[in-house]
Design a protein that fits this description.
The complex is a heterodimer. By secondary structure, chain A is mostly beta strands. In chain A, strands 2, 4, 5, 6, 9, 10 and 11 form a seven-stranded mixed beta sheet that branches. In chain A, strands 1-3-8-7 form a four-stranded antiparallel beta sheet, with no helix packed on it. In chain A, β4 and β5 form a beta hairpin. Chain B contains no helices and twelve strands. In chain B, β10 and β11 form a beta hairpin. Classes of the chains: A mainly beta, B mainly beta.
Chain lengths: 114, 110
């Protein structure tokens, strides 16, 4: 059973640029959630996708957007990058979108915005 | 709305000593509670969870946590820690959308 994978591992961008982060969910999982973890802080929920539809969103501006594909992999897109977007971006997959389903986290993508 | 407060940012502890990590939560709906562990340069791993039923939940590696509704707490304990328990620990509350605390760094020394 393959776990959650994310790419790339590290990324360096400059202010104003756009970035796409990718996530492959664990086999059999149809739900993907994205979190932002700033240095020294806990992860913050960005949004969740369930069967290719957005299923809830945290307190992030519209320049954070996402997609989920028929194979349940997912992308996180961030436009007009700001310095404060520098963080570890975590993807988590689960079997179902209801409460209590264990979320399995990937290793994350470290984004640095200069 | 839901939120989590982890009361200790850093906990140094000697090997084979007990450890307690404190977590308080607030939630306006039914509560699911979780403890995650993050080892250096790795993603989060679920340590244990409370969904319903017995208020004391245990992990396979000796950790336990007790859900206390009246005190809105979900403290994590281990009676005897190992060097390998050095990591960051996060308490979380929520259903599909998890709200995490700021984390507690546990450093186990010989």
């Amino acid at each position: 059973e393959t776990g959650v994978t994310q790419s790339p591992t590290h990324l360096i961008k400059t202010r104003g640029q756009q970035v796409t982060l990718r996530c492959s969910s664990q086999s059999g999982h149809n739900t993907v959630s994205w979190y932002q973890q700033a240095l020294g802080q806990g992860p913050q929920f960005i949004f969740q996708y369930y069967r290719e539809e957005e299923n809830g969103r945290g307190n992030f501006p519209p320049r954070f957007s996402g997609l989920q594909f028929p194979n349940y992999s997912s992308e996180l897109n961030v436009n007009a990058l700001e310095l404060d977007d520098s963080a570890l971006y975590l993807c988590a997959s689960s079997l179902g979108a209801t409460g209590g389903n264990e979320q399995f986290f990937g290793p994350g993508t470290r984004l640095t915005v200069l | 709305a839901q939120s989590v407060t982890q009361l200790d940012s850093q906990v140094p502890v000697f090997e084979e000593a007990p450890v307690e990590l404190r977590c308080n939560y607030s939630s306006s709906v039914s509560v699911y509670l979780f403890w995650y562990v993050q080892y250096p340069n790795q993603g989060l791993q679920l340590l244990l969870k409370y969904l319903s039923g017995s208020t004391l939940v245990e992990s396979i590696n000796g950790f336990e946590a007790e859900f206390n509704k009246s005190q809105t707490s979900f403290h994590l304990r281990k009676p005897s820690v190992h060097i390998s328990d050095t990591a960051e620990y996060f308490c979380a509350v929520g259903d599909y959308k998890l709200s995490f605390g700021a984390g507690t760094t546990v450093t186990v020394r010989a």
